[in-house]
Automatic annotation (TrEMBL):
Protein name: AAA/ superfamily protein
Source organism (scientific name): Bifidobacterium imperatoris
InterPro entries associated with the record: AAA_14, DUF4143, P-loop_NTPase
One Pfam family it belongs to: AAA_14
Record carries keyword Nucleotide-binding: yes
Secreted is among the record's keywords: no
All residue ranges annotated as the AAA domain in the record: 30-163
Superkingdom of the organism of origin: Bacteria
Amino acid sequence: MNQLNNPITPGYIPRPDLLNRVLAHRNTPDIKVIIGVRRCGKSTVLAMLADALTSDGVPSQNLFYKRFDAFDIPLDYDATDLHEELIQATERADTAYPFTVMLDEIQDVPGWEKVVRRLHTRENTDVYITGSNANLLSSDLATYLTGRYIEIPTFPLSFSEYLDFSHSTKEAQDRSQDDLLADYLLYGGMPGLFALRERTTESIGAELRDIYQSILFKDVAQRYNIRDLNSLEKLSRFLFSTSGSLFSARNVANTMTSAGQSISAGTVITQVDALCRAFLLYRANQEGMQGKTVLRPLSKYYPVDNGFRGLATGFSPRDVGARLECAVYMELIRRGYTVSIGTSDTSEIDFIASRIASGGMQKQYIQVTASLLDENTRAREFAPLVSLTDAFPRIIITLDPYSAGISEEGITVVNAKDWLLRD
């Protein structure tokens, strides 16, 4: 295999759902753009793809892989170097098979768009690129290839994948799904956690801190020329620890300034946007319920993985409701939903999730709560859903194992573990 004498990611644990989403676009003319936060498994996707193609009989000389954040890449490596390597590789390829190009963390190569443009014009060539920043699609490539690329988002492990990974380790084989869910909500699902020799709070924290700092400095500070690293780190940690709260740049700036970190509302907005572009944060905007308009909608922010919230809170077990809300939000995003916050003059619905499916628009209203055993909590969670008059599903997701079922009002209460494991 060109540029791949050794496996891309040796000893990886398969993620078949993710691989199938990529294979669905195999040998199409579109450029396949695999994006997601750094170290969420994009290189593993390419490894699984290469293995699948090899198993399907594609000769190794027809597979070109290169990772551009690797140690052995020259510091001055640019588009010309890549173009020359690709020309040499295509000359060795077997013309009876497509030539597959896999370019990992391509955003680190100056002028990479020019090479990808030329690859797109080459016959019988299947191109996959990965990147850890949304700028990958806001570059000249997106302008030139309008309608000619397909974006494939990649995320840290779902709970279903987390169970698969856990069952591959001896220490977790005898643990219950409830115990593993508790770990998932606290430590998150970054795949690198399963490469640790021993998984303790200290070792998990060190691994997550390394990932977080790599993202913060490489994909945020360096890419957007943010020099005040202290304010950037404090802002990101503040947003992690307060995820699920309505966001106001002015209030955040005032809070941080009062705590000794002087920052303007404009700087907060700029830095939050950079964190979102690095896929470290995701945004949910307010949406009026029952067709009402929100004149000045606010937003909530959620970390891409609960491990980052845990890192910011010292892995406190006390905020389980907020951690469950983060996990549900990211699972909805993973399932292809657009997610907003339902709001009215008197109430709020945690999530309004919508997506286009083969049968038309799918929409559901979702409340998330740790437990419904307290009558006041139950009344508070049910009230906004009862007030709705359309026919879309209304769901309450809870860790409470005793409240599952369908209420008299037609509201479905489902256990969080069961919901997270649904397809």
